[in-house]
Design a protein that fits this description.
Layout (H helix, E strand, L loop, with lengths): L2 H27 L6 H8 L3 H7 L3 H26 L3 H16 L3 H11 L14 H16 L7 H4 L2 H17 L7 H20 L6 H14 L4
Helix pairs in contact: 1-2, 1-6, 2-3, 4-5, 4-7, 5-7, 5-10, 7-9
Length: about 230
Amino acid sequence: MTMNATKNQKAAETRQRILDASLKLFLETGYEQATMRKIAQLSGLTPGATYYHFKTKEHIIFHFYEKSYQDHLEPARATLNNNKALKTRITGLIKTHLDVARPYHQISKALFRVASTPGHPLSPFSEETRELREENISLLREGVNGSSDRIPSGIKDKLPEILWLFKILIIIYWLFDTTPDQEKTDRLVDRSVDLIVRLLAISNLPGMKSFSERLVGLFEEFKPYQ
């Protein structure tokens, strides 16, 4: 292993150490009460070393969000590579992300109290989370564009964004799901994606184009981010 590789591995291990300590502290004391100094102490690091890797608590959570996204990419892409039906592709993209997030169900509930605050940097609709939001939408676009289903062009262009907002709603439901391994959420994903695909099929029928375009226009006008 080269010197740079060793250095990078050590940095990654330190960042993971800080992240693990942060999540533990957020769960025990709440996000607002957890300070960078307390995080450093629990990590066994100096405050300076902690700040070197993460400037703020928000940066730690952004890293957590990004890591969750990156960790689900391999099974997500396997779903896309092995399936052409839109229903299977979209269901797989959502479920693989939930599978990765499952061990963090409790801490995700604690973070939701902060992220659901209007205007907070950790909100999925904030400017600060734009890059990750666009990465998620881009993956859903792959899911839509690579499917064998016929989707009207007027809907197809905006469908990935609409599906991302749908995914956010699923995640909120998942946060409050108390069934074992949140199995009720899995059933909701199956049934609701099936309904979405059926509605898309209906939109191909004569006379439905105008209705579909109005729905897309409604989404574009009132989506909670720009």
